[in-house]
Amino acid sequence: MSPFRLILFDDDFAADFYPLTHTRPVADLRIGIFTIREKWEKRLRSSSTTSTSPWLEKYRWPFEPDAAKDNLWINGRVVPDGELAFEVMNLGEGEAITMGETLIACNCGKSTARIPLNEKDHISGNFAVRDVKAGVVILQRIHDIFMHNGNAIAADEELLKSEDFANELSATNTVIGGNRIYVGKDVTAEACTFNTANGSIILCDGAEVMEGSHLRGPLVIGEHAQVKMGARIYGDTTIGPGCKVGGEITNSVFHSNSNKTHDGYLGNSVIGEWCNIGADSNCSNLKNNYGDIQVYNYSRGGYENTGQQFHGVIMGDHAKCGINTMFNTGTVVGTGANVFGGGFPDKFIPDFSWGGSAGLSDYRFEEFTETVRRVYRRRSLELSAKEAEMLKTVFERTKKFRKS
User: Fold this and answer.
1) Residues 6+ apart with CB under 8 A from 373
2) Helix axes 82-89, 36-44, angle to 10 degrees
3) Is the pTM here over 0.85, yes or no?
């Protein structure tokens, strides 16, 4: 049994990850093979709890420290590797590590009290604070997810158990390159091309890659995910559990149970859970003048320069778009939004909006939840009362962003 209890906390920067963190703590963002939470739990061999927004704690992520163990508080924006995990694991009671003004982790011993982690004076006054020694990746904005995804896949490989990926591809496939292909249980793949020259390819349990698909590493196809016939998926991409994808995808991260099953291009993007991208929909990830791309930031109430030349679409959970939707560079689609119609919609589509370039109105919450129920039933799931309440809270909290 682990001597630690991990407390993954959201700091003041969690709002910079809206709309994705409207419905999850930062630690439950997916980057590489696993979510940040899963990485910490695997590396420190410990269960975790969360210190986050009141509405998330109330409905899905309760704050539950452990009085019988050392409670390690870890910033949910920090993406761990082996070296950093070792440094955190060896923190003594009352010790903390920082990088600049950012708290990385601290050991609060058996105390179950919630500490004011955003007050640097409190940390300095009550902990022995030192600078972190290991290299650290700290997510600052959503685009950091796809920017660091390739390296995160490579770092996560050491967390895979060889016995879980001891299977081999069918001889009908073509394999290029010297890196590994990890083949989980019950994987189906026939007459496809797998290129590992630039990184490994991970095919998790139950994944299906249909014939004629071309895949390049580093790449993750999650548990029971499905790659449709003739798909072209480039490296630095993660397709999360239960997703169904097709067409052309590059350097993007899909969270679980989202669909992009038809032709169309998606690049340098992050897609939440339960999203659906209609047939022949495309996103631009490069401006015609090759300039820096501006993206809407909820916490600042306006657009900010990302300093990035490549940036596609960000989609919050349960967002959907109709066929032939065209997303401009750096578009943000809020939680539960439903986008359709011709032309380019606005670069910021507020949560629970309904419409497109011709105008937006509020998506009635009762109609939204009925759609969610239909979607869930297709996967033999039901929308719980608690999740419905959480989504209602997000609906109310995001009213100020809608124009109607």
Assistant:
1) 382, 383
2) 60
3) yes
Residue 126: its pLDDT value, please? 84
> In the block, which residue shows the tokens 């700290």?
138
Distance linking the first and last C-alpha atoms of the chain: 53
Structure tokens, 322: 């109709």
Q: What is the DSSP string of 347-400?
A: SEE-TTEEEETTEEEE--HHHHHHHHHHHHHTTT----HHHHHHHHHHHHHTGG
In tens, the pLDDT along 122-175 reads 677 789 999 999 999 999 999 999 999 999 999 999 999 999 999 999 999 999
Measured CA to CA, the distance from residue 335 to residue 242 in angstroms comes to: 19
The pairing of strands 95-99 and 34-35 is unpaired
- Judge if the upstream peptide bond of residue 19 is cis by omega within 30 degrees of 0: yes
Q: Identify each DSSP E strand in 230-327 by its residue range.
A: 232-233, 237-239, 244-245, 248-250, 253-254, 259-260, 265-267, 270-271, 276-277, 282-283, 294-297, 302-305, 314-315, 320-321, 326-327
> For residues 283 and 266, is the Cβ–Cβ distance under 8 A?
yes
Of 142, 145, 232, residue with least CA distance to 194 = 232
Write phi, then psi, for 401 (nearest 5 degrees): -90, -15
Averaged pLDDT, groups of 10, the chain, 404 residues long: 91 95 98 98 96 91 94 97 96 94 94 78 81 95 98 97 93 97 98 98 98 98 98 98 98 98 98 98 96 97 96 98 97 98 94 94 96 96 96 96 78
* Pick from 59, 60, 38, 35: nearest CA to 48: 38
Neighbours of 373 (CB within 10 A): 13
Q: What's residue 120's pLDDT?
A: 62
Q: What is the per-residue pLDDT for 125?
A: 75
